[in-house]
Amino acid sequence: MHIGTTLTNYIIETQRGIQGATGEFTGLLNDIATACKKISALVDKGDLVGVLGSAGSENVQGETQKKLDIITNEVFIEALGYNGHAAGLASEEMDEICEMPKDAPRGHYLVLFDPLDGSSNIDVNVSVGTIFSILKAPEGVKDPKTEDFLQPGTKQVAAGYCLYGPSTMMVMTTGKGVQMFTLDKDFGEFLLTKNSVQIPEETQEFAINMSNSRFWEGPMKRYIDECLAGKEGPRGKDFNMRWVASMVAEVHRILSRGGVFMYPMDSKMQAKGTAGKLRLMYEANPMSFIIEQAGGASTTGRERIMDISPEGIHQRVPVVLGAKNEVELITRYHNEG
Ligand code: AHM
Ligand code: MG
Fold first, then answer.
1. Which of 17, 43, 210, 278 has the fewest CB atoms within 10 Å, i.e. the most exposed one?
2. Is 176 a domain residue?
């Protein structure tokens, strides 16, 4: 596919390669692109249209919601609920799976999304993003229930994110590599700007919230200590560190110039009875699909993320993803205990 082609053309071409495809998948990805364009416009305008700040409510995770968390969630439901491409929707911002409009036709796909990831960044004008994961509804299921969404990441038919940064970019995979599209705001279309993105296997850059270091488990402490020891340490090279606190921006940097991202398990979470910070269905699985498709790897430290059989729609997991060799080293440290 040539650089500069539209996202719509790209999707139509991709679907042509799938036997028995009906155009529903193309329609669905177009709906997602429409939602992301709307969110991009809202994020761009920010304070001019009064969308910044707290909404004064909490989501199912007990986190304070921003006004934009709620608005962007509605944008997604509006764009995907009525066109007959999705069978069901689930959002990080909603306790239960979304009730689909009674009078609207239904498609065959399940879409899980985090409409505005990294939203703590929105009020300080730092990059945020949308993440989505697409599964097939089980055969014959017209009105999917929560358990129909609980499929391992390996079952995803597509996943992607939209990064609202200096440019708005849509990055996605349908299992045939990773493509990057940039929104041409004059033209109103996402245009292909990078084809078949690959992550270098080696890196000298890591991303982790260092303020949690005293709570980490031994293997994670060991890995970071060795990175920090630099040229004189066992790794024999100096490392650089970045932490945007916006997973979409973090993953995008790794796809663009390499690196490894970690949000590991820690004793603070253990004490609260949670199994990690990031959500398996809305964040970890879609990002793992993209990273693996770009030649990287993704694990909890102990198992491949996409192999996990989900137990709950809002389940959390530890996440280590990025450069293959680094992820393998971190996995080895976890296996050694
Ligand atoms: P959110 O979905 O509530 O925005 O939380 C997810 C975000 C990730 O984008 C980011 O990697 C992480 O939370 C940052 O967490 P912390 O503030 O603990 O560094
Ligand atoms: Mg999130």
1. 17
2. yes
